[in-house]
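Q: I have two molecules that I believe assemble together. Could you output structure tokens for the complex as a whole instead of separate predictions?
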Amino acid sequence: GKKNYKADGHPSGGVGVPGGGAVGGGGGGAVKTRKPDNTAFKQQRLPAWQPILTAGTVLPAFFIIGLIFIPIGIGIFVTSNNIREYEIDYTGTEPSSPCNKCLNVSWDSTPPCTCTINFTLEHSFESNVFMYYGLSNFYQNHRRYVKSRDDSQLNGDNSSLLNPSKECEPYRTNEDKPIAPCGAIANSMFNDTLELYRIDNDTRTPITLIKKGIAWWTDKNVKFRNPTGDGNNLTALFQGTTKPVNWPKPVYMLDSEPDNNGFINEDFIVWMRTAALPTFRKLYRLIERKNNLQPTLQAGKYSLDIAYNYPVHSFDGRKRMILSTISWMGGKNPFLGIAYITVGSICFFLGVVLLIIHHKYGNRNTSADIPN
Amino acid sequence: REPPPGAEAYIPQRFPDNRIVSSKVPIFSFIHLDKSAEVILCLIIDTPTSPVTSGLPLLFVITVTAIKQGYEDWLRHKADNAINHCPVHFIQHGKLVRKQSRKLRVGDIVMVKEDEKFPCDLIFLSSSRGDGTCFVTTTSLDGESSQKTYYAVQDTKAFHNEQEIDALHATIECEQPQPDLYKIKEMTEYNTLVNCALLNLLRCAIFSKTSCLISGVAIYTGMETKMALNYQSKSQKRSAVEKSMNVFLVVYLCILVSKALINTILKYVWQSEPFRDEPWYNQKTEPERKRNLFLQAFTDFLAFMVLFNYIIPVSMYVTVEMQKFLGSYFITWDEEMFDEDTGEGPLVNTSDLNEELGQIEYVFTDKTGTLTENNMEFVECCIEGHVYVPDVICNGQVLHDGTGIDMIDSSPGGSGKEREELFFRALCLCHTVQVKDDDSVDGLKKNDFSRKSCIYISSSPDEVALVEGIQRLGYTYLRLKDNHMEILNRENNIEKFELLEVLSFDSVRRRMSVIVKSSTGDIFLFCKGADSSIFPRVKEGKIDQVRARVERNAVEGLRTLCVAYKKLTAEEYSNVQKLLQSAKLALQDRDKKLAEVYEKIETDFILLGATAVEDRLQEKAADTIEALQKAGIKVWVLTGDKMETAAATCYACKLFRRNTQLLELTTKKIEEQSLHDVLFDLRKTVLRDNGSLTRDTFSGLSTDMQDYGLIIDGAALSLIMKTRQDGSSSNYRDRFLEICRNCSAVLCCRMAPLQKAQIVKLIKLSKEHPITLAIGDGANDVSMILEAHVGIGVIGKEGRQAARNSDYAIPKFKHLKKMLLVHGHFYYVRISELVQYFFYKNVCFIFPQFLYQFFCGFSQQTLYDTAYLTLYNICFTSLPILLYSLMEQHISAETLKREPSLYRDVAKNALLRWRVFIYWTFLGVFDAVVFFFGAYLLLDNTVVTSNGQVITPYNIFFFQLALDTHYWTWINHFVIWGSLLFYIVFSLLWGGIIWPFLNYQRMYYVFMQMLSSGPAWLGIILLITVSLLPDVLKKVLCRQLWPTATERIQTKHQCLSVEQSTIFMLSQTSSSLSF
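A: Yes, here they are, computed for all two components at once.
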């Protein structure tokens, strides 16, 4: 019963309205005040532009969209095709796979199970190459998983460091010590080590993999911070905390370089940005082009050395290594180009259909009598 | 003020103080319950959204509602306070004391000066005028501008000073307060029983006009005054749009529940594999593991409900309410609906029904005062068959002065002369007209009554016309003084008649009488009334001649009254007096008893003659009715007038045309045949023709088609309605309805007020449930105004009662055209678009969420960030649609007025049919699927992280709205692009800063990363194009192949300005590109 009101703004002989009391031409003064203003807004006569969608007006738009989209689509498609991408599944579910022996590896197996996969690149990779690892069937977007982190701890807040958020349960404490970094996401950090070698006449030349610059600048410099305190000794700063259960080493021993250690380790930051879909890839390393004369990765034989630590078989997961160059539009994505071409063609086709309809029925309608 | 001695069973009654409280506490309706429940759920169970996310929109909704209601309340408070604090003079302990009005108590004695308002209902004790009378105006109560005379209670009217009045010791016995303004039944006990009638009761809010002091005792105060009781809100009316809105809401609720159910079931199916339920990387906590499975499932179900609840557009109710409230101002602001003559504009008493004005199928209109001017002109009188015309107006000049009488027939003989004089005296005496008592004029020429100087005032314009007409025939009514009526006869002599009784007019009896005593001591009863109520009571007189003349006049559309008299002997009179006295003093059923007594008294008349008064048609009445009929609205005229007069009016206002075949369902006909046969015959006539013709020519109003007009009178109607008990009754009613449906116009004459309402109800409850509108100006129309879906009052001459009880009030009947065809049409289009859009936008928003559950292990993970969930409905999307729903004009107002047939395009709730609703829902689902899978495929391996997809679905709403807007004013531009800009700025801010109050920073820099990536832009453009494509295509194809009348007109206008639209499309694409 909320819809019960009188428009009291307009006196209607309601409570104590004196107007019109006099006999005869009473309320003469009230006439002026009650007369509504003749403004364009109040009379609903604001100048306006009144577009109407008709075949005649939409036709050119369809043709224009068609003409614009098809070239764009072709452009994108060509660009995407020029992007080199190579993908290896190293899960090892097939018995023939070299990594099959590591399939049932557990977290704490020492020394780590290693395997090597050889592969051949048919085409050379000209520009900078991005090396990704990909996981399938890994629900990084599960609600329980997504919220199991403490952003203020990761931001270097000292109180959160020792008293992590409840959201981190059951990865909040271990043996009565707070876990740093806490939560399921950090605990399950990807810890396979991938190394790439070029095989040239049976000699293995390691390829330099750059581990910095893979995270967003803002994440590395603003969002993630190590705890602050006296000195720069991370070991001391993380005093009183314990490592995540599944990690072999504590967080302050992730890397030897101080600006890539602790919470600001880039591998860690990349992992902490959770993926939206259960199949995802994350940037692992960069391979920079050395000089202008040689491509970054020549066509030829390569081998991938894997320190297989990350178990995925238990949940039917897959692990991949992807090598890819990028262009102005990012990684390889043939779909975008195809979609543009398709939509452009549909628009063009519809334009033609509309043209026919317009010519066949158009005259009938414009001449048709409008009932008075 | 004290209990009477000896009254043992006296129960002290609590009387309220004189505070008027019309404000009320805001009450929140059920729709908020949904949200409140959600907030509570969020607090008790583990839900995907935080309590803040769910609570904020609720808080917003409540705040807006509260502000709106608070504002209205504040206005009422202000008005209340003004009244409650105005000073009042009391008499206390023999002294005059000034106090605030709200301190007044029942039993206090109040003094009121000239031009003061009575603070509460008072019993008039005395006035400083010697004769114990006072004059008041009741304009603010019932709109009647005449001055009324009230009389002090006989026993107290001699009191003059405060001491005397203070010494008064009396008990007043009165009934419990009741709202009827014109009914009062109470008695005063003061030594002896004293009759205290209506005329002693001075009601709150009326103005004193007497130049003297009035004292009175308060009997009803505060909320018990007649005035306050009349404020009580009427029964709620709900519009058809609101009903369909609620139905859609139920559908969405079902969708919501089924979605949650599906997801819950799938979740448990999916989770049956333990590695999915609890993979090593995502372990449950101990308490979670131990939880009972069914409890867990139920919690999951609730969590899904919370997640998907955004599909129920909570903010829609607020927006709709705002739209209605603000939109109603456009009606009051409309200059064209302002009447210069009366200085009145349209009034909106409720804004709930704006859109209902665009859905009207039946209009029930009153005749007098609504279709006609109610500006009466005396045309002629007929005395015993001789016709008298007062003066012939020719070229605007009065040829004959008042004294001359044209005798069309032969001059009357000797006895005729006597009857003639009696007739004129009867007309001079039998009325309730008052003479405006102008003191200054009175003082100057006390004995020199100029014939033209008198101004007559009466609540009935017929009476004024009659008295004025008689004045031109030589008899002038001068005044009522000391219960003596003075008339100036043709010889310029003043005749005095003592007024003994007035048997006042009522619409059931349809007559009034006075009993007067001439100076010679003869007692006459003069009666005037409708012919049907006079003729049966006449025992002698030239009935046939008079009847012939009356019928002739009635055909010409004149209002006729018959005049009759009877002479009473002193003995008879004392009988009459006794009867009246006992009836008047009755505490219960006084009205009924009075009516019985009147019935007894008003018999055995001698017929004198008849009068004819012309009531001109209102300006543009015919034009309006024609437009309404073209708009597919059936117009029924319901009048208390007689058949011939009413039919003539109907012809004049083109309700009936020359080729209309009239079907009569009248008492006369029923007397000849049985009701059953009449109905059967009529039905046969109507259906024979219509079966072959009407069905297929519905859209156009073809002139060659035979149309029927039905005339039914009150008696016949009551026969149809009455036989309720036996089974055949509903049969009659159905048959009657069937006949009515096939008639283009229906005239119901001789209707009592209640019958009018009955007719409206009959149509309202018939099986198509048409939307009805009743329009009228008088108190007799109130019942039908209240009964109809929309009640419109004409602010007319018969007082303000109709306007007060109506939903909308307009100054003239002609304004109905703009009200329905323009405002109604606009409001309907606006609100239906608003409702559909709201459902669309929420489906579009939340359906991806549903799809996402399939990709996140049914874990209730939200696709959007909390901030977007919270603000989506409140900030990002509500303003453009609100503005759209206020400003949209799909076609210009002039065109709508010129082409009434466009009204048919929106008839029968056309824009909210299931087809349209399903279309919008599917459009929403389509867009959601396009966006979800588009983002899934296009943005797959780039920067998408969880919550990364916020930007894409969002933009579409603006473009969809932009597509539907036909009327782009700068305000629309500003709001649509402004909201988009706000969204972008908000996103930049939200993602650009680490907000210290948040315990997660998931959105940090996501938006910027998104904007900086090329494919994201390309993807957004593509997705927007794809999602707009089907709607554009559908619109264009429908317009091209199956255009509605509206669209044809739009196209026609379009031909004149083709260039404009190409610009639109270009800018449409360019704006797509830029966002």
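A: One point stands out. The CA atoms of residues 19 and 222 of chain B lie 5 Å apart.
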